[in-house]
Amino acid sequence: MEQVLFEIVDNPILVEEVTNKVARREAGAITTFIGTVRELTKGKRTLHLEYEAY
């Protein structure tokens, strides 16, 4: 069976769904980061984000 190693999406990432995809009995841990975007940084408005996950 071919294993899918990445996915390109333009919708919200569901943490539980991703965790279920990578969970393995032989793995000791799964680390995730969940954050929000602040409206202003040093007085400048956030216009867009670029996001990469590995």
Would you kindly provide a brief summary of this structure?
The chain has 1 helix and 2 strands, in the order αββ. The chain is mostly loops and 54 residues long.
Extract low-pLDDT stretches.
Answer: none
Number of domains: 1
Mean pLDDT: 85
Structural class: little secondary structure
Shape: elongated
Q: How widely separated are the two ends?
A: 22 Å
Would you give an account of this structure?
There is one protein chain. The protein has 54 residues and is largely without helices or strands. It has one domain (1-54). The protein has one helix at residues 15-22; strands at residues 40-41, 44-45. The protein has a two-stranded antiparallel sheet. The protein starts with 14 loop residues before the first helix and ends in a 9-residue tail after the last strand. The model has no long low-confidence stretch (mean pLDDT 85).
Question: Topology, please?
Answer:
Layout: H1 15-22, E1 40-41, E2 44-45
Antiparallel strand pairs: 1-2
